[in-house]
Amino acid sequence: MKKRSIVLLMASIMAMSAVGCGASSAKADEHPKEEPVAPVTELSGTQTVVVMGDDWGPAVTKTILHLDKEVESDSVAADAFSVAETKEQFNFAALAEDSEEDPSKHIEVTADRQVTDAYTCDAQGNKSDDSEYVALEMYYSPNDGSPFCYDIFTSQNTVCDPYTLAVSLNDGKTISTTDGSEITKITVDDKIDLSLDAAIYPQLEGADLSGTYTGETGHTITYGSFKPAEDGKKHPLVIWLHGAGEGGNKNEVAVLGNEVSALYGEEFQKVMGGAYVLTPQTETFWLQYKEDGEWGSNPGKDSIYLKDVKGLIDQYVAENEGVDPNRIYIGGCSNGGFMTMDMILNYPDYFAAAFPICEAYKDSGITDSQLKGIKDLPVWFIYAANDDTVVPDQFEIPTIKRLQAIGANVHTSVFDDVHDNSGRFKGEDGKAYQYMGHWSWIYFFNNECEEDGVNLWNWLAEQSR
Prior knowledge:
GO terms for molecular function: hydrolase activity. This is Phospholipase/Carboxylesterase. This protein is of the alpha/beta class. It has two domains: 42-188, Immunoglobulin-like (Sandwich), CATH 2.60.40; 206-462, Alpha/Beta hydrolase fold, catalytic domain (Rossmann fold, 3-Layer(aba) Sandwich), CATH 3.40.50. 21% of the residues lie in helices and 31% in strands. The chain contains nine helices and 22 strands. The strands form six sheets. Strands 13-14-16-15-17-18-19-20 form an eight-stranded mixed sheet, sandwiched between helices. The chain has a five-stranded mixed sheet with strand order 5-6-2-1-12, with no helix packed on it. α5 links the parallel β17 (323-333) and β18 (353-357). It is elongated and about 95 Å long.
């Protein structure tokens, strides 16, 4: 009897287990297993560009892709990517006699940008390990990558609008995400924001380009400024006056149109022992001598902005106790070279030195009395002999001869032409790339101006009233 009870108990337990298993199985059948998710093959994202100033002006040198997944660093290579640049450009073809197009209307042009390097990076474009950011470095030159549009009718540069970069993966090329997906396509927003708040301008770090000043004559001047580190000492103030193409109300155009950012750079700042830099900008032209806008035919008359520039300088010096009032240096190129001459001719005792470059102040408009006024002011002229924009025979050469005749403190750096000295760019003849002869400011910003073994930057740093 006892044995039979045990057998029945075990049979009951087995039956209950069978029912339980059956119930679980039925429940599982009610929620079938999910199908595996298809692997990701496409990424999307946005981009931020890096803009660098160079001898001829600015260039977009790098774009930083912000993708929606982390990418393996080992999977990224330059040959995997293509970049097509589309931007605003002056319609030079419309100037042809047989053209029916309106040359005053800008066009859009598209060109491929050569990707020279690619790597994972941080948000600022610095190389890193696996990341959701990918940097694409691109070849740039005097003819490739500029985000500026120059209009020969207005004689000014503007920031290209539109400016886009279409980025894609080349056929047969892939990149890999850290979760194991193989990416065959990327879709990145091609619109580029070139504003100072959005794009990355490494050379402008530490500079404030947002200043505005309205002078006593009612003209408003945009300006930028740079301050050296505070050390309890007095430092010189260097004033740069831009050329005709860099007018407007975006000071980055005035700073990057010529490589004025070199004045913020380590080499120049070291030579100066730390220097303040002021970059005034007029919406029109320093050469303007009539309120109705006349400027190109200036016969040697004061700029309508003369008192406004002086007022800005006075205000800046008053607001910055670290400026040494005995070491204020002023210079500029072309249109800004004119303004440099206009300032020292009218305020000869205010400045410690001047460096006019391819200056456009007609010698015929300068009186003997004015030259005597700057006889003791150290002035260093820079120009190229083949300048056919501001012809030296009408501007610098006669003025320099007149100053030398009265024993003035005058110095010169005269070049045969303006060419690339970096070795980066060659012409079709295999020789150094030739710039316009007017662009002699390139030699100043590259610290290549000398006279009898004396370096201009070093000389400038030594001048004091």
